[in-house]
Specification:
Shape: globular
Order of helices and strands: EHEHEHEHHEHEEHEEEHEEHEHH
CATH topology of the domain at 2-178 and 218-255 and 294-307: Rossmann fold
Radius of gyration: 19 Å
Strand order of the largest sheet: 3-2-1-4-5-6-11
Distance between the termini: 42 Å
CATH class of the domain at 2-178 and 218-255 and 294-307: Alpha Beta
CATH superfamily of the domain at 2-178 and 218-255 and 294-307: NAD(P)-binding Rossmann-like Domain
Helix content: 40-55%
Largest sheet: 7 strands, parallel
Bound molecules: nicotinamide-adenine-dinucleotide
CATH architecture of the domain at 2-178 and 218-255 and 294-307: 3-Layer(aba) Sandwich
Length: 328
């Protein structure tokens, strides 16, 4: 029996798979290794996992393909992290989101139903909150005005999960991640792009004139939160769960409870690179939100989630990894 990790070649998926292997679990990882960003990075993450422990099996394949999922070996639980990520790409390539985040989510729910898994943990996103001034974001708040198709697809994924938890009584936990960063991170995200530019002496584009705040979450804290959630399936006891479900379905924010100015991020990157960043102030981009801030009270209470890593520790850790990986 194994734990299925979808998106196992992705940033968060590879870290989660590694942590599960480290505690002696058997893991089946699936990923279609698509070219949204350089697949060489996905292969490099996988190479580490394959080298890490004998308990890892990798299946190259698409989660939207029912036959591929039906052919998987025995699984007890699912950590579903595969998705088409990225807010801005959803403006250029909306169908990628329909394929992976809607059809893919449905096929994972069908897999959970047909295999009667003990728990399905799936990734949602802080983007479901939209551009709201009600801070911090609480999972009890309404989140039905998405400002990007990515956000809409993640909210749709939560609603699809709710219907399956209700109909088939499968325990499910949705995790709304807040700007996750760290070693082996994603090249489309600000920390990677800014670090590349600082090291190349190029100006950094700061949108909305730099007046952006993000609740940045270090990958190790997020992995600890995912494993804690996996170990605590919500009970089917009729009590209202975080997020409002009366079924066995809980939704938590996993963030850092500490929104930071993008300008502070840039200063830390500059210090870690030993270079003075050059800044290019630009207008707000469509689909973006000005601030994110996670209310992590319910995750602290129910999961023992306790993020420990401030940007001042996490950014130098990323930059050191990046320079090693990119040889710059
Ligand atoms: N990183 C963040 O800051 C963040 C924030 C909020 C939510 N999330 C969510 O967390 C999850 C993991 O994100 P990540 O940062 O690791 O992204 P990622 O892009 O690095 O990982 C996702 C992986 O899924 C794979 N994938 C995509 N579509 C697939 C499909 N149809 N079939 C099989 N594999 C497929 C990709 O190849 C990729 O390796 C995603 O669901 C994402 O929406 C991430």
């Amino acid at each position: 029996m194994a734990i299925l990790v979808t998106g196992a070649a992705g940033f968060i998926g590879a870290h989660v798979a590694r942590a599960l292997l480290a505690r002696g679990e058997r893991v089946i990882g699936i990923d279609n290794l698509n070219a949204y960003y350089d697949p060489a990075l996905k292969h490099a993450r996988l190479a580490q996992l394959v080298g890490d422990a004998p308990g890892f099996t990798f299946v190259p394949g698409d989660i939207a393909d029912a036959a591929t999922l039906a052919a998987l070996g025995d699984i007890t639980t699912i950590v579903h992290l595969a998705a088409q990520a990225g807010v801005r790409h959803s403006i250029d390539a909306p169908r990628d989101y329909g394929h992976s985040n809607l059809t893919g989510q449905l096929e994972i729910l069908e897999l959970a139903r047909t295999r009667r898994v003990a728990h399905l943990v799936y990734a949602s996103s802080s983007s479901v909150y939209g551009d709201t001034s009600a801070l911090p974001f609480s999972a009890e708040a309404r989140a039905d005005r998405p400002v990007s198709l990515y956000a809409a697809s993640k909210k749709a994924g939560e609603l699809m999960a709710e219907s399956y938890a209700h109909l088939y009584r499968i325990p499910m936990t949705g995790l709304r991640f807040f700007t996750v960063y760290g070693p082996w991170g994603r090249p489309d995200m600000a920390l990677w792009r800014f670090t590349t530019r600082v090291l190349a002496g190029e100006p950094l584009p700061l949108y909305n004139g730099g007046a952006m705040r993000r609740d940045f979450s270090f990958i190790d804290d997020i992995v600890a939160g995912v494993l804690a959630a996996l170990d605590r399936p919500p009970a089917d006891d009729g009590a209202e769960k975080p997020g409002g479900s009366l079924g066995p379905h809980a939704v938590y924010n996993l963030g850092n409870d500490r929104p930071e100015q993008l300008g502070d991020l840039v200063a830390l990157i500059g210090a870690a690179c030993g270079r003075e960043p050059r800044i290019d102030l630009l207008p707000m981009q469509p689909g973006d939100v000005t601030a994110t801030w996670a209310d992590i009270g319910p995750a602290r209470r129910d999961l023992g989630y306790d993020p420990k890593t401030p940007l001042a520790i996490g950014v130098p850790a990323f930059v050191a990894w990046y320079r090693d990986y990119s040889s710059v």
